[in-house]
Design brief:
Blueprint: E1 6-15, H1 26-43, E2 51-55, E3 59-64, H2 70-88, E4 98-110, E5 113-115, H3 117-127, H4 129-137, E6 143-148, H5 149-156, E7 169-175, E8 178-185, H6 213-219, E9 236-241, E10 244-249, E11 253-258
Parallel strand pairs: 4-6
Antiparallel strand pairs: 1-3, 1-4, 2-3, 4-5, 6-8, 7-8, 9-10, 10-11
Helix pairs in contact: 1-2
């Protein structure tokens, strides 16, 4: 029903390097994208109306009904997709390489598609720098899978058919909504390659200071380092947390300071 949120398993698929394809190459890429993913769903026994799909240009957003066992996606569907890609890419000059983001949560339908924070997270995991870097580093692999911490805990760790918990590796990734934990797997490998430390986009440069602001900045005293009394009577810790700071001390326990003004 439109506007009524429902619980669902979210699969977001993107094609790596699609922006480098010409207009004449993209239709063939999309045909193969739908072929390998759609065949994998059929092989896993998942069909509409239990499967909703939304075109994303160089990718596909899929939302599965609550009665679809998530372990079937994490295990059988991923394995079938991997094998379908290997077969489809055989002898091709430009192989199709895919990134997959998996999450579970509330999804709200409307006349235009599906939305919700769970959808956003699945898409962010699929598109984040770490996912792209891992697939780039696995030069001979056609697929990388990024799962949320929740999916990993609930559906990967218990194991199952074609579910290999030991083949996943954890990374903390920086998304638009903040830092989160994700788990990565490259099917066909015992472990994904380590991405370079610069995989996530570097923080944007600070905006230029207005005229005359240099003197004010120069006059601001530097922040004192965290102090620790070796007697154990007083310990102070200062941590940067988003737009604010967390200061912990023995006497005041925890004090959260937010410099935005009016923030929590």
């Amino acid at each position: 029903m439109e506007g009524e949120a429902a619980y669902g398993f979210i699969v977001n698929v993107d094609a790596q390097g699609s922006g480098l394809l010409s207009d004449t190459e993209k239709p063939e890429m999309r045909r193969r994208l739908y072929d390998v993913t759609g065949t994998a769903f059929e092989q896993a026994g998942i069909h509409p109306p239990r499967l909703y799909q939304e075109d994303r240009g160089d990718g596909i957003l899929s939302v599965l009904a609550p009665d679809v066992p998530p372990a079937r996606i994490v295990g059988e569907w991923v394995e079938q997709l991997h094998q379908n890609l290997r077969e489809s890419n055989r002898d091709l000059r430009k192989p199709l390489r895919l990134r997959v983001g998996l999450h579970i949560g509330r999804v709200t339908p409307d006349a235009y598609g599906r939305s919700g924070r769970a959808v956003d997270l699945a898409c962010r995991l699929c598109d984040c720098g770490t996912t792209k870097a891992i697939l780039a580093a696995a030069a001979d692999a056609p697929l990388v899978v990024a799962v949320s911490d929740r999916v990993h805990e609930d559906f990967v760790l218990p194991g199952g058919r074609w579910v290999d918990p030991e083949h996943y590796r954890r990374h903390d990734v920086d998304l638009k909504e903040g830092r989160t934990t994700a788990w990565f797997r490259v099917p066909g490998r015992p472990a994904p390659p380590e991405p370079p430390e610069s995989a996530e986009a570097a923080a944007p440069p600070e905006p230029a200071a207005p005229a005359g602001a240099e003197d004010t900045k120069a006059s601001t005293p530097p922040r004192p380092p965290a102090a620790t009394d070796t007697t154990g009577r007083f310990v102070q810790n200062i941590h940067q947390h988003g737009d604010g700071e967390v200061i912990a001390a023995e006497r005041i326990e925890t004090l959260n300071i937010d410099r935005r003004g009016g923030g929590r």
